[in-house]
């Protein structure tokens, strides 16, 4: 009973892991046996193939010796050099075959001795053939015939055939042994795997039965208990004594029921809470509507203010232009004053125009599909005069991409970044602007890279604030709104904007547009 109680206290996860470990060990053992015995079968098959190769090459040597003698006899009879072709060809090959056989049988010392002996006899046979060919060439047929008539060549050939037969007998004996070995290994492997499969199946059945009993009974008790709780019995006890997950779950549910019983509130209190929450929700809706109205009024005020300011500025510009025609009649101070008024008026007009555009960002709620390549191509046409003036190049290297967004705001975003790249260039260095894009999981990421003057790292946050400038107007023109405009457009499209830069080397502005 104590042993059974201890088993019940083992949690379900541990039981499953133990079962899985046993089954996995059995499978791994099966794989190991299969792999090991497969290697043995392959090795045995290789030995058989090796033996067959030796037998084949022994046959080749005999054939080559016949070719040697055929070439020699043809030459001795005719004296024509072309009859020596089989002799010369076979002489080159026969030693290759002998060396190959010696390598194949290097594991057998007896065969090595026999093959060395065979090679020695072959050497003598070839020496005898070379001698007859030499005598035929230099001393005539009769001199060569004397060597042939003494039967030394026949004696060498008989010795060679005897040695080859001895080597063949040894290899055939090995072949007989090696041919049966793969089948024996195969039968042994099959028997082992069948036994192991039976053992694994038995283990799986035992583990499954034990886990099933450990899960089924507690689930039944839990189901009956929860039915009682559903009927309103918050004092119900599940009486699951095991220390596994089900026992822990039963204790947890009982503690939750106890807390629920202690913390339940009356019907009137609940109704009061509901009424209070509805009132808060109503007040929040009123505040939301008021905020939206205030926001609209603020946008309208910004637009009207910017629009109304344009009239006096335009008047100032018109009159300053008229006064410029009369500059020659004025004093030097008057001429300088006219230039200052004119320059300030134009700058004020540009500033108001930028403010007006800044206030309008996001006022066009309808998003459209935008082809990025087309957008950049159109911008290059619009900026052609500035590009020609700066001798600049603008290149888009991203893939064809279509996104959804506020078209005119995005045009202004790319335009501001490109114009800045052209504006803040190094002296005597044509600007090079490279635009890239990348589709990511939740957004599209763009980058605009230039080879300009660069920005110090401590100014990275400052440049995105409205009216913030890093250079005087005498050095670079501008209103200080461009990058603030860019940041607002990016945030409108649920993205973010940042940069990397090195002074004197250029900058790269990155921004994302949410999908």
What does this entry look like structurally?
- By secondary structure, the chain is α+β, with helices and mostly antiparallel strands.
- The relative contact order is 0.06.
- The protein has three domains: 7-215; 238-360, Helix Hairpins (Orthogonal Bundle), CATH 1.10.287; 366-514, Histidine kinase-like ATPase, C-terminal domain (Heat Shock Protein 90, 2-Layer Sandwich).
- It contains 13 helices and seven strands.
- It is 71% helix and 8% strand.
- It is flat and about 135 Å long.
- Strand 6 (497-502) and strand 7 (506-514) form a beta hairpin.
- Helix 2 (12-78) packs antiparallel against helix 6 (152-230) and helix 8 (267-324) runs antiparallel to helix 9 (332-360).
Tally of DSSP helical segments: 13
Element order: H for helix, E for strand: HHHHHHHHHEHHEEHEEHEE
**Overall pLDDT metric:** 80
Give the overall shape, derived from the CA principal axes. flat
Distance between the termini: 64 Å
**Helix content bin:** over 70%
The whole-angstrom Rg is 50 Å
Low-confidence stretches: 1-5
Strand order within the widest beta sheet: 2-4-5-7-6
Give the amount of beta strand, in percent.
Answer: 5-15%
């Amino acid at each position: 009973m104590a042993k059974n109680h201890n088993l019940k206290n083992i949690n379900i996860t541990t039981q499953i892991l133990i079962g899985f470990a046993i089954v996995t060990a059995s499978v791994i053992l099966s794989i190991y046996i299969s792999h090991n015995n497969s290697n043995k079968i392959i090795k045995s098959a290789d030995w058989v193939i090796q033996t067959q190769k030796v037998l084949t090459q022994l046959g080749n040597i005999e054939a080559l010796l016949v070719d040697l003698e055929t070439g020699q006899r043809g030459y001795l009879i005719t004296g024509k050099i072309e009859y020596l072709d089989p002799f010369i060809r076979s002489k080159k090959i026969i030693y290759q075959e002998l060396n190959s056989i010696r390598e194949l049988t290097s594991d057998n010392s007896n065969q090595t001795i026999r093959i060395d002996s065979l090679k020695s006899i072959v050497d003598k046979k070839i020496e005898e053939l070379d001698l007859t060919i030499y005598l035929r060439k230099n001393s005539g047929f009769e001199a060569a015939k004397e060597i042939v008539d003494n039967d030394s060549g026949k004696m060498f050939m008989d010795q060679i055939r005897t040695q080859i037969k001895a080597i063949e007998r040894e290899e055939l004996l090995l072949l007989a042994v090696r041919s049966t070995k793969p089948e024996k290994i195969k039968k042994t492997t099959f028997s082992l795997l069948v036994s192991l499969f039976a053992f694994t199946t038995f283990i799986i059945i035992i583990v499954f039965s034990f886990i099933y009993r450990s899960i089924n009974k507690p689930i039944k008790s839990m189901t009956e208990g929860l039915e009682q709780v559903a009927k309103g019995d918050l004092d119900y006890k599940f009486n699951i004594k095991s220390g596994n997950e089900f026992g822990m779950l039963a204790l947890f549910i009982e503690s939750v029921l106890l807390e629920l019983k202690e913390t339940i509130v009356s019907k009137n209190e609940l109704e009061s809470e509901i009424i209070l929450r509805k009132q808060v929700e109503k007040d929040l809706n009123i505040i939301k509507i008021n905020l939206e109205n205030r926001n609209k009024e603020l946008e309208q005020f910004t637009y009207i203010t910017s629009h109304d300011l344009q009239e006096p500025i335009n008047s100032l510009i018109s009159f300053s232009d008229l006064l410029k025609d009369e500059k020659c009649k004025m004093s030097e101070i008057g001429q300088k004053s006219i230039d200052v008024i004119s320059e300030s008026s134009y700058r004020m007009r540009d500033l108001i125009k930028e403010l007006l555009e800044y206030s309008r960002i996001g006022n066009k709620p309808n998003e459209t599909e935008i082809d990025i390549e087309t957008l950049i191509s159109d911008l290059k046409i619009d900026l052609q005069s500035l590009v020609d003036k700066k001798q600049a190049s603008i290149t888009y290297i991203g893939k064809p991409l279509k996104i959804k967004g506020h078209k005119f705001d995005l045009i202004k975003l790319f335009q501001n970044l490109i114009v800045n790249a052209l504006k803040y260039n190094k002296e005597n260095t044509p600007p090079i602007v490279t635009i890239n894009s990348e589709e990511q999981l939740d957004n599209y990421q763009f980058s605009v890279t230039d080879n300009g003057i660069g920005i110090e790292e401590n100014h990275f946050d400052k440049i995105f604030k409205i009216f913030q400038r890093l250079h005087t107007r005498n050095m670079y023109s501008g209103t200080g709104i461009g990058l603030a405009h860019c940041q607002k457009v990016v945030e409108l499209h649920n993205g973010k904007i940042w940069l990397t830069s090195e002074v004197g080397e250029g900058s790269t502005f990155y921004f994302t547009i949410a999908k």
